[in-house]
Specification:
single chain; mainly alpha; 4 helices; 0% strand; globular
Length: 89
């Protein structure tokens, strides 16, 4: 299960990082983490694999933010936002 989440992350992280060069950040990483959690809670139950991948990505983003690594936080949260279909505001 975690292997699937890691593969999904690796695949989407490259696309997300490539996409960050043209997409401006709507706000700080902490606000984006909160927005993604609110969105996840507002939806019907997600498939277990999808929810697991999202939560691992969000946890990695939160750890990066706590360590002061804004770039790593944003790279992870961009993938979360794309998986949730959240566009930049």
């Amino acid at each position: 299960m975690r292997d699937l989440a890691v593969c999904l992350f690796i695949f989407l992280a490259g696309a997300a990082i490539a996409g960050t060069q043209s997409n401006p950040e709507p706000s700080g990483c902490a606000e984006r983490l909160e927005r993604s959690l609110v969105e996840m809670r507002s939806r019907p139950l997600l498939k277990e694999e999808h929810a697991t991948a999202l939560m691992w990505l969000r946890m990695d983003a939160a750890e990066a933010e706590a360590a002061g690594d804004e770039a790593a936080c944003v790279a992870n949260i961009i993938v979360v936002e794309r998986l949730l279909g959240l566009g930049a505001d």
